[in-house]
Predict the 3D structure of the following.
Amino acid sequence: MDQPRGRAFYLLAAIFALYVLFLYGPTLTILALSFQGPSGGLTFPMNGVSTHWFAKLWEGVGVVDIWAALRRSLALGLVVMALTVGIAFYAGLAFRKGFRGSGLVFALAVSSLIVPSIVVSLGIGLEFRLLDDAVKALAAATGWGFLQDHGTLMGLYTSALGAHLTWTLPFGLLIMFAVFNRFDPAYEEAARDLGASGPQTLRHVVVPILAPALVGVALFGFTLSFDELARTSQAIGGRNTLPLELQGLTTTVTTPEIYALGTVTTAVSALVIGTALGLTLWLQKRRARRALTGL
Amino acid sequence: MTDLALPAAAPAAQTASPAASPRRRRRALAYLQAAPLALVFLVFLVVPLVLTGIVSLWEYNEYEIIPALTLQNYADVFDGCLSADLCTTVRTYLSTVKFVVLTLAITLPLGFAIAYFLAFHIRSGTVRMGLFLLCTIPFWTSNVIRMISWIPLLGRNGLVNDTLRTLGLIRAPIDGLLYSDFAVVLAFVHLDTVFMIVPIFNSLARIDRRLIEAARDGGASGAQILWNVILPLAKPGIAIGTIFVTTLVMGDFVTVGVMGGQQIASVGKVIQVQMSYLQFPAAAANAVVLLAAVLLMILGLTRMIDLRREL
C-alpha cells in the first residue's frame, strides 16, 4: 500500500469531504440560527445576533416542561448506560467461557436489532397494558387495599428502561465480542499463577485492561438511549423523554426557540461524551505511566 | 469501539481446566453471567413479541380489547386487497419499500466508498480513528433535531432556494424540497449512512492485504481487484449494512412524519396511529405483518448473499 496517491485517492477524499459537509451542514445551520435576533425567524438571513431564544427557552416552551423532560432523559440515559456496561460485560465473559444456549442468546440479541423499533415498542406497550389489566383484575378479585389505587406499571424505569435496553445491549454485546477477541488470556493466566482468585483477576487485571472499551460501551449506551424515540414512543407511559417532547414540538413551535433547544441538547450530549472520552484518555495515560514506573 | 467483530468470531469455550469440579463451577458461573442479558431479552423482546402475536388475534371495540379469537384484524389489514385496485395496505407498503430502495441505492455506494477510503487509503491508524469520530459526532445530536435542521436549508425561503434565486437559476422557489419524498430520502441518507459504513469498514479491515498484492502481482487492474477480490470479501459487511438500513427504514414513522410533513403514508405510522386510538389488536396485526415483511426481505437478502457461508 505504499504507492503514491492516485486519482482514486483524491476522488474518494472528495466524496468523504462532501459527506462530512453533508453531515455537519444542517446541524451547524441550526447552531448559527439559534443565535438569531429577537425578530429573526426560522430561516436565514440572521436578524442580528442574540441569546434571546435561549432566554425564551429558559422560561419554558408552551405547556411542555422541557427541562423536566431533559432531566428524565439524562437520568434514564445514565441508568441505561450503567446497566448496558454491566450486563454486556458479564455477558461477554459468559460468551467467552461458552455455555449451552449461547447461540440462542446471541440470536436473540441480533434479532433485537432486526425487529423494527415500532414493533418492539408496541409489544412492550401491550405487555404492560396486559399486566395492568391483570393487576386490576387481581385487585377486584381480592379486594386488597394496596392494589386498589394501582395506576400503571408503565414508566420510565420499567417499560421505557426495558425498551432502551433492547436497543443498547446488542451493540454493547457486539463491542464486548470485538474486545474479548483481542484480549490476551495470558494476562489472566499470569494472575492465576500468582495466586489471584477469580474476582481478583477480574478486578485487578481484566477490568483495567478493558477500561477504555468499557467506556466505549458506556458512550454507546448513553447516546443510543438519549436519542431513542421509536422504541420509547409506545412504551413510556405518561411522562415523555426529551426526544418525544421534541418530536411533538416540531409541529407546534415555529420560532428559533426550537433551534436553541437543539443547540442545548447537542451541548449536553457533547459534554457527556467529551467527559467520557477524556476519561478514556486519562485511563490510558495512567496505565502507560504505571507500566513505565512499574506501579 | 468502531471495529465490531462479527459474531462468528466470538470465541467459544477454550482453556477449561482439567479438574472436573472447577469446570462445572466455571460453567455455572457462565450461566449466571449471561442470565441478566437473557432475562432482559426474554422480558422485553420475546414476551412482547409473543403477546403481539396473540393480541393480533383478539377482538376489540372502542373501550377494550376482548380475549376472543378472531381473524378480523388481519382481514382488516388486507381489506380490499383482492380487488383490482391496490388496497391501502399494499399502497403503504409500496411507498415504504420505495423509500427502502431509494435509501439503499444511495447509502450503499456512498457507505462503501467511505468505508473503502478509510480502510484502504488512510494509512495512519490515528487519522483513521479521527475521521471515524468525525463521522459519528453528528450522532450526538438527537434525530429529531437533525431532521428539523433541514428546514432552514430546504424550506420555501431556505438557503437552497435563496441561493438559486440570487443566482438567477430559478424565479419562484421550489416547493418540493421540504415535506416531500425527496426530503424523506435525504433525511434517511443523513441518518442511516453510518449504519452502512461501520459494517462494511469492518469487513474491509479484515481483508488480508496479501490477497490484494497477489491479485496485483497476477496482473489484475484496480477495477478487477475491486470487483473480483474486494467486493466479494466485503459481502458480509454489505449484507449487514443493508439489513440494518432496510429495517430502520421499514419500521420508521418519525422521519417519514417529520420530513414528509405528516402527508406520506408509512407502515410504522399506521401502527402508531392505531395505538394512539387504542386499537391495539389492529396495531398488533399490522406489526405482525410488518415483522413478516421485514423478515422476508432479510431472508431474501441472505439468500442472495449466503451470509452463513460468508461468516
Q: What stands out?
A: DSSP finds 14 helices and two strands in chain B.
